[in-house]
Model the fold of this input.
Amino acid sequence: MDKNSGLHIGINFPILLGLSLTILMVSCKDEDSVQPPGEVWDPTPYELVIPQSFPDMPIPIDNPMTVEGVELGRALFYDPILSADNTQSCASCHEPAFSFTDNGRRFSKGIDGIEGTRNSMPVINAGWMPTLFWDGSRTSLEDQALEPVTNPIEMHQTWPEAMSKLNAHPEYPDLFFDAFGTRDIDSTLVTKAIAQFERTLISSNSKYDRYFRGEVQLTQAESKGFEIFFTEKGDCFHCHATILYTDNLFHNNGLDANHIDKGLFEVTGNENDIGKFKTPTLRNIEFTAPYMHDGRFETLEEVIDFYSHGVQWSPTIDPLMKKVDQGGVQLTEDEKQYLLAFLKTLTDTTFINNPDYADPFK
Done:
């Protein structure tokens, strides 16, 4: 009996010892990560209301929207803590009053006073955008939010430095726990929160939307502009006909005969992409001057003049561009005014004045 007992102990004692150590280690780990008494992570799902006739918005499986996540993202969007000298936030170049663009500037300036080379794009209905930036170099809102922090001509801060500031902040660790169930802040969670907030920035209450819903009528000038926009006369509809007023594709629209900024080509390396840039939304276009990827046009009148008489041929010009040999669609002065009147029906003042989108620190 003793011999058998000894044999039994001899065979199983290492296993039992290992099991005991494992249990002890797991217990210690659990004790270290246990939530404080009475504290439970229980985020509230965010009910995203999709406007009539808009497509469903794709939400990443690994970043479901919550009330806490959206509010955290809103704070981070407006907080200059993500810049190296604590002076610049996402909102510095994407202001609500200008439909989340940069206050009429052709090129935004970073914390060191250095200008970029492309115009700041509006953050409107961005949750439906499969690619971001003029050259489509980012494929998600989460991915897009990574770049400005470390960009040497924007916020010019390393992510480790940003994480150090956030983790040492008196409030952010608790806000991250409320949103994601952890106080260990990293860049992935920061960009997830910002992306959640940006997905709520939906514009769908312009005069055109109200007309589309049968709530108002267009004026005679706006109706004529509508006809110009959606027919070969103005030929705007090929790139801007969807309810989002962008096809989310890339086109060479005839801005230049020779391209200094090669656009999509810089991402793909495909020579057929030289001079192609992402189609911007026309929603709230009245507030987002200046226009084009390099902000070369200060007014909508200049944009309309360009498409009417200023289009230039180059080898990659989009086949959709009409009457290129004549410089464009050749609108009369009256037709230009009608088209301008219609474009202004895309103005959504409720969007730029929505308190849910405003700076939470003010």
Q: What stands out?
A: The beta strands are 250-251, 277-278. Residues 1-34 have pLDDT under 50 and may be disordered. DSSP finds 13 helices and two strands in the chain.
